[in-house]
Amino acid sequence: MRYWVILFTIYGLSIAQRKTNEFLNQERAKLSDSAYVKFLKQNDECLGREYIDNKRIVVVLSDIQFEEELILNLGGLTAKIFYTVSPHSEDTVLIYIPEEKILFLGDATSEDFFNNGYRDKDKLKTLINLIESIDCRYCI
Questions:
Q1: How many angstroms separate the CA atoms of 85 and 108, rounded?
Q2: CB 3.0-4.6 Å disulfide test: which of 14, 52, 88, 107 passes with 62?
């Protein structure tokens, strides 16, 4: 069984692609099962320390959800947030700042692949072609 636990606090509005919210909603439903919570705490040392003494794990969906693309005016800069295909996850999102020619890849190129570690070479080629097609000077 493969699982991911991501813990963070956001002070402000959060943005996520639809599939991310679906994943979060599924995880929230699983947390009603005490055996699942016990499994998570036993198999993730950090999670076990963070949520000791029956401290409840709370999963919150994003405030803003988008499907394909969301464009934000940052006051002189534009952030183009968009969903893309990636071998890393089913909900990969990249952020492009065209005025600065910067492309934020997030974890899109991570070597940790979903689907039991299988790297889909077609998805990797699609991601590479997309990155190469974007007029960016820096990939972060």
A1: 9
A2: 14
